[in-house]
């Protein structure tokens, strides 16, 4: 059926490791990759893939072969369909002499014809209210409706008869695809009186439909085609066939929930987006995306269900090695409504303000507890200890540090205390024992007296606080200092336990010349600290560096810093600060 040249071209165009990796979690093992066999019950990885020889073999069940064999077995396809679909994946157009009417051909061609019929029906002028809803209410342009081939099912028998007479579509094919429902001897359109959204596979073939109810009708707001051999929601991402080029170029993808959310993003100029068709993000979805990027930006619904879905998706994506970020929608439910209510700029701005996934997790879980109490802080830590442990196990230092910093900012706990809990060296209860008062160090009292007594020096105070080893009490006040707030504004917001210490600092005042001298002493202390840290960093590098030229350069820099430190130290340490 297919000659050797075509088969070889397909096999050489598809990396077997990448394709198998969509279905099997593979780990590198020497020159091979291995994982749990998908063809038998496997608990100890016995399934091997050779990138060099482009074949696979399972030492457990004995199955083996090339990329075509694997695809045949994993998708349960006949050879001809496997070749045809792999040719699509590889971007290879099969010569006409190889064209065969496979079941896959019949399925996708029938749905493609139906998609075009639905689309023409929408633009026929027979349903102005539906078109007005899409153009005026949803804010889509006619160009976007044409790009996505949005249609409408009128729900009458005449429409179905025309499909048969004008296009030669067999109703039995549409019945198999789940588009039609048979009652007694009659056929009925599952999507009757609905706006139709064609759903494509990664290669651009129509494999199913989404249907949105029109205003004034009753029933479920959205429905999808039932799952078939070729349409499985957990393995299909809406708009991927259109988005994959821009995803690869920009090296990130925006993940949203529904069709209209995805279309709104497209209308706003954000083409690198996909939708999860109202289902949970799955490992299969992630395997598809891994081909194009390792960076995910979630833009899910703003309700509790959407936030919970985001949290689950973050956990799954991070376990697969993705970098994650979350854009939070406020004031409205989803991306589609945000676009409709506030326009494309609001969507673009929302994405620009995305935060790391690790920070979103802390922010969201912090809303479930009262973090103003020791008990609430303890609960937040207990929520996040498993996440911190996973980061440590995966050696994901970025995720670990982001989470620790976010917890510290929420709870005012020391970073070293949180790390001690994460690594099992301390119990949350121990570091969160409630203190009757907060104590300020003398250097902190000096800074507060300067801050409140001399507003013109507040910028200088705000600059040095980042470089000091400070108490928990002072760290609590830093956020107010950064905003340059007055005493009356701060006293209304602070914890009552810190009040006495703050009052004591305010009562102590000094003239401007003494304030400048004190601030200069503190800045000198900060300068010494920074220089010492730089020398320590050079010493760490010197212990590892091998290159003689690099070593000499580091030694010269160390001598320069040592001389600078000596000049800074001249006159002795500043009052033990």
From TrEMBL:
InterPro entries: DNA_primase_core_N_sf, DNA_primase_DnaG, DNA_primase_Znf_CHC2, DnaG_bac, DNAG_N, DnaG_primase, TOPRIM_DnaG_bac, TOPRIM_dom
EC number: 2.7.7.101
Domain of life (superkingdom): Bacteria
Chemical reaction(s) catalysed: ssDNA + n NTP = ssDNA/pppN(pN)n-1 hybrid + (n-1) diphosphate
Gene Ontology molecular function: any one: zinc ion binding
Manner of cofactor binding, per the entry note: Binds 1 zinc ion per monomer.
Zinc finger (CHC2-type) stretch: 37-61
Required co-factors: Zn(2+)
Biological-process GO terms, alphabetical: DNA replication, synthesis of primer
Keywords: DNA replication, DNA-binding, DNA-directed RNA polymerase, Magnesium, Metal-binding, Nucleotidyltransferase, Primosome, Transcription, Transferase, Zinc, Zinc-finger
Record-level GO cellular component terms: cytoplasm; DNA-directed RNA polymerase complex; primosome complex
Residue ranges constituting the Toprim domain according to the UniProt record: 251-330
Pfam family, one: Zn_ribbon_DnaG
Job description of the protein: RNA polymerase that catalyzes the synthesis of short RNA molecules used as primers for DNA polymerase during DNA replication.
Domain comment (free text): Contains an N-terminal zinc-binding domain, a central core domain that contains the primase activity, and a C-terminal DnaB-binding domain.
NCBIfam families: dnaG
Family: Belongs to the DnaG primase family.
Subunit and interaction comment: Monomer. Interacts with DnaB.
Protein name as catalogued: DNA primase
Source organism: Kosmotoga olearia (strain ATCC BAA-1733 / DSM 21960 / TBF 19.5.1)
């Amino acid at each position: 059926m297919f000659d050797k040249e075509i088969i070889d071209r397909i096999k050489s165009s598809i990396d077997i490791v990448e394709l198998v990796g969509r279905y099997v979690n593979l780990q590198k093992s020497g020159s091979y990759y291995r994982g749990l066999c998908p063809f038998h019950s496997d608990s100890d990885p016995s399934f091997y893939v050779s990138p060099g020889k482009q074949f696979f073999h399972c030492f457990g069940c004995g199955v083996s072969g090339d990329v075509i064999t694997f695809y045949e077995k994993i998708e349960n396809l006949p050879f001809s369909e496997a070749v045809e679909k792999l040719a699509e994946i590889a971007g290879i157009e099969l010569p006409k002499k190889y064209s065969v009417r496979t079941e896959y051909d019949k399925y996708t061609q029938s749905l493609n014809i139906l998609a075009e019929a639905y689309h023409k029906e929408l633009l026929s002028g027979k349903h102005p209210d539906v078109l007005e809803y899409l153009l005026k209410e949803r804010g889509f342009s006619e160009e976007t409706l044409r790009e996505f081939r949005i249609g409408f099912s009128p729900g009458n028998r005449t429409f179905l008869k025309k499909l048969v007479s004008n296009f030669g579509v067999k109703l039995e094919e549409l019945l198999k695809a789940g588009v039609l429902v048979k009652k007694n001897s009659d056929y009925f359109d599952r999507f009757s009186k609905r706006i139709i959204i064609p759903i494509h596979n990664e290669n651009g073939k129509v494999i199913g439909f989404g249907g949105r109810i029109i205003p004034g009708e009753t029933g479920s707001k959205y429905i999808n085609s039932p799952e078939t051999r070729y349409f499985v929601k957990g393995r299909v991402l809406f708009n991927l066939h259109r988005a994959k080029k821009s995803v690869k170029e920009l090296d990130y993808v925006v993940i949203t929930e529904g069709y209209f959310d995805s279309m709104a993003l497209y209308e706003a100029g954000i083409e690198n987006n996909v939708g999860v068709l109202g289902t949970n993000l799955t490992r299969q979805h992630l395997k598809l995306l891994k081909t194009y990027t390792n960076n995910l930006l979630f833009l899910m619904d703003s309700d509790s269900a959407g936030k919970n879905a985001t949290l689950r998706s973050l956990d799954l994506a991070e376990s697969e090695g993705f970098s994650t970020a979350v854009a939070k929608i406020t004031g409205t439910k989803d991306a589609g409504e945000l676009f409709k209510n506030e326009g494309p700029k609001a969507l673009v701005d929302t994405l620009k303000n995305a935060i790391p996934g690790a920070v979103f997790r802390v922010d969201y879980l912090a809303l479930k507890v009262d973090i103003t109490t020791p008990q609430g802080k303890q609960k937040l830590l207990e929520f996040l200890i498993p996440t911190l442990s996973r980061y440590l196990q995966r050696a994901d230092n970025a995720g670990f540090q982001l989470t620790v910093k976010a917890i510290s900012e929420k709870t005012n706990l020391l970073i070293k205390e949180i790390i001690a809990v994460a690594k099992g060296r301390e119990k949350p209860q121990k570091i969160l024992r409630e203190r009757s008062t907060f104590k300020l160090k003398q250097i902190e009292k000096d800074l507060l007296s300067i801050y409140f007594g001399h507003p013109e020096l507040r910028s200088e105070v705000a600059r040095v606080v980042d470089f000091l080893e400070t108490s928990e009490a002072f760290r609590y006040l830093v956020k107010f200092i950064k905003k340059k707030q007055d005493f009356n504004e701060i006293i209304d917001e602070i914890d009552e336990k810190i009040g006495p210490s703050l009052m004591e600092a305010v009562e102590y005042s000094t003239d401007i010349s003494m304030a400048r001298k004190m601030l200069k002493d503190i800045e000198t202390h900060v300068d010494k600290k920074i220089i010492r840290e730089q020398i320590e960093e050079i010493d760490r590098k010197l212990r590892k560096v091998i290159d003689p030229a690099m070593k000499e350069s580091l030694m010269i820099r160390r001598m320069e810093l040592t001389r600078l430190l000596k000049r800074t130290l001249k006159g002795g340490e500043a009052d033990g600060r």
